Amino acid sequence: MFFKRVRSEGLAHISYFLESEGQAAVIDPRRDVGEYLDLVRGREARIKLVLETHRNEDYVSGALELANATGAAIYHGEQLEFGYGNPLQDGQEFGLGELTVRAMHTPGHTYESHCFLVSDARGPFMLFSGDTLFSGDVGRTDLTGPDSLRDLSEKLYDSLHHRLVPLGQEVMVLPAHGAGSACGHAIGKREITTIGLEVRDNHALQLSRMDFIMSKMSEGMEKPPYFERMEALNLHGPIILGEIPRPAPLSPRQLKEAQEGGGLVLDVREPHSYVAAHIPRSQNVWLEGIPVFGGYLIPYGRPLVIMADRLEEVEVAVRYLIRLGYEDVIGYAKGGMGPWIMNGMPISTIPARTAQEVRSRQQAGDPLLLVDLRDRREMEEGVIPGSTFMHLGKLLERSSELPADQELVLFCGSGPRGGAAASLLRNSGIGNVSMMLGGFAAWKRGGLPVGPLKNG
């Protein structure tokens, strides 16, 4: 037997390649399937099965892409009417070389959620738990809306305690997400765990049934707006790409023409570089921020041109984008920002302030409003007195609340979201923006005033 985790950074998504005697299965594949194909070639094996634990919400599934490349059969829960693949029934078993893979219907995160229990001749030993059970946490139950929140919370408790815990303490648990995922509230950093470890350490498994239900119903997690698009694509089936798109290199003149034709320049450089000099009307989302925040900031339906410092960053950006359903990447700025500047093209800047500068201006009575972009969990380590709170995902929606007669100093935990938010507001016509370098971390480490987060 051979298995390997395939981790998608940023999304904290984990898929799995499982092989025995030349027969392989992939569980919850991502859209760029090259790594699975490399594994199967290296193992001289054949991918027989693509198993989906549920209709994923935070990325585009690679099930169709992988089936197209290998001829593998796709299976997912029969509780939803998928536009592709085969319906999965509780207890259905699949032979995989010397292994048996059994589907276990475990509703809670979603109605069609399944786990996959792997056994050999000695019995069950491995569980692909999807978004039902994580290390240190369990799946969220709010994604189908408030009407089903209590029902799914009840079902998740029953799935955990009546189906998974009885499997035995020694069973290895392989979840679909690690720490940092939007699909759990407090996922731990230990990405491989066991039933026994979770019974011992997972707070959610210590709760009574009623306390568990009340806890899940009051979580109040942010649902990124792009989740609905991912759900629709994964239900009906995304287009098959066949290979990773290769955007064309664009000269400054070609880039300008693309922008004038409706294209959006996506600047994936670090915010401190972006605010110093960028193409007017471009949107900043730093490279490693694309998987988590791209869906908040990048509009669907517009051709994209990537601005990056290096070609390899363009390639990474394309992978991140297709995982979120952005397929129309038409080009990239050849040579980065340098040729644009050297050709005398227009440049925009955004003021960048240090934490000490912001504090000095506060004390001097300058008209400033600090806008905290962090989520509530991040704010538990403290807040800047007098700041206002707007989650990045709600910024445009709530922009009418922002004053026009004060400088809006945007900041997050360490800085990057401040630059992205500043570019978003600037492009929407709000020009009185700046970003605070280093964010809350720089403020706190500088010994500047910090207060507690107040409830309500």
Q: What characteristics describe this protein?
A:
456 residues, alpha/beta, Oxidized Rhodanese, domain 1, 3 domains, six-stranded mixed beta sheet, 24 strands
Give the count of helical stretches. Answer: 15
**CATH class descriptor of the largest domain:** Alpha Beta
- Structural class by helix and strand composition: alpha/beta
Beta-strand percentage range: 15-25%
What is the oligomer described by this structure? single chain
**Low-pLDDT segments:** none
> What average pLDDT do the residues reach?
95
CATH H-level superfamily of the largest domain: Ribonuclease Z/Hydroxyacylglutathione hydrolase-like
Description:
- It contains 15 helices and 24 strands.
- The longest helix is centred in the middle third of the chain and has 16 residues, at 149-164.
- The protein is globular and about 70 Å long.
- Helix 3 (149-164) packs across helix 5 (209-217).
- It is of the alpha/beta class.
- Helices cover 29% and strands 23% of the residues.
- The strands form five sheets. It has a six-stranded mixed beta sheet, with helices on one face. Strands 7-8-9-10-13-14 form a six-stranded mixed beta sheet.
- The protein has three domains: 2-236, 4-Layer Sandwich (Metallo-beta-lactamase, Chain A); 248-342, Oxidized Rhodanese, domain 1 (3-Layer(aba) Sandwich); 352-445, Oxidized Rhodanese, domain 1, CATH 3.40.250.
